[in-house]
């Protein structure tokens, strides 16, 4: 069983230019996920998938740089298209897709999802956060009755994808064109792991979290 991880990354970010190389508590943002993936011994091959060879300066030993088509840096390109290119470039039985914009993702969370796919009959796994609160969707309550309001601990939980990682068997993508299959494992992560950096405000929040985790 061949297990491959890949970290797609571009350096022409739109909302926060250059964010993936910005210093977060003394380390480039991208290095957090690079180091997390590098620590997982179950992975046979580990790749950074980027069109700009400048990223080589930030990739640690143990992870391979794979140059991707510059077309994939386009702002209109969807994530599934990036996966399609990678799957055609590198063969595997199980793929692990992670993103550098979620620096606090734990290796233990990724390994938990991977083991579920490897041994417990799941065809995929994804990071998510459990929301057990009063939620609305399209102008209507999603998980509670406004005429019979129960306590939050008795609410039906809602699960939000965090996007930190997706783990899937090859045929989930090649046959279904999906990164989540028909029998996925929901890998619950903490709110800290779910922190995602898209804007400068997000980055400032992440800096506060990083200082807290470093005991400052």
Q: What features would you describe in this structure?
A:
The protein contains five helices and eleven strands, in the order βββαββαβαββββαβα. It has 216 residues and is α/β, with parallel strands linked by helices. The chain has one domain (3-127, 158-213): Spore Coat Polysaccharide Biosynthesis Protein SpsA, Chain A, CATH 3.90.550.10. It has a seven-stranded mixed beta sheet, sandwiched between helices. Strands 2-3 form a two-stranded antiparallel sheet. A two-stranded antiparallel sheet has the order 8-9. The radius of gyration is 18 Å and the shape is globular. The N and C termini lie far apart (43 Å).
Keywords:
single chain, 216 residues, alpha/beta, Spore Coat Polysaccharide Biosynthesis Protein SpsA, Chain A, seven-stranded mixed β-sheet, two-stranded antiparallel ribbon, 25% helix
- Average pLDDT number: 95
| Domain tally | 1
Low-confidence stretches: none
What percent of the residues sit in helical stretches (DSSP H or I)? Answer: 25-40%
Biggest sheet details: 7 strands, mixed
Distance between the termini: 43 Å
Q: Could you tell me the strand content as a percent range?
A: 25-35%
The CATH homology group name: Spore Coat Polysaccharide Biosynthesis Protein SpsA, Chain A
Rg, Cα atoms, Å: 18 Å
Report the total helices. 5
């Amino acid at each position: 069983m061949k297990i491959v991880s890949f970290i797609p990354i571009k350096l022409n970010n739109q909302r926060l230019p250059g964010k993936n190389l910005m210093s977060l508590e003394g380390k480039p943002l991208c290095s957090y996920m690079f180091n997390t993936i590098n620590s997982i011994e179950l992975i046979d091959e580990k790749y950074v998938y980027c069109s700009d060879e400048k990223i080589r300066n930030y990739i640690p030993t143990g992870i391979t740089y794979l140059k991707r088509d510059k077309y994939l840096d386009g702002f209109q390109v969807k994530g599934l298209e990036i996966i399609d290119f990678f799957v055609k470039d590198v063969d595997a039985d199980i793929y692990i897709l992670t993103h550098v914009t979620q620096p606090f993702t734990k290796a233990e969370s990724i390994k938990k999802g991977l083991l579920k796919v490897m041994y417990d009959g799941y065809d995929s796994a994804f990071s998510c956060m459990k929301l057990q609160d009063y939620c609305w969707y399209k102008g209507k309550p999603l998980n509670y009755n406004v005429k019979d309001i129960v306590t939050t601990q008795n609410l039906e939980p809602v699960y939000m994808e965090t996007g930190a990682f997706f783990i899937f068997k090859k045929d989930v993508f090649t046959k279904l064109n999906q990164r989540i299959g028909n029998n996925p494992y929901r890998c619950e992560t903490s709110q800290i792991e779910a922190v995602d950096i898209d804007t400068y405000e997000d980055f400032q929040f992440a800096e506060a979290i990083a200082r807290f985790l470093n005991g400052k």
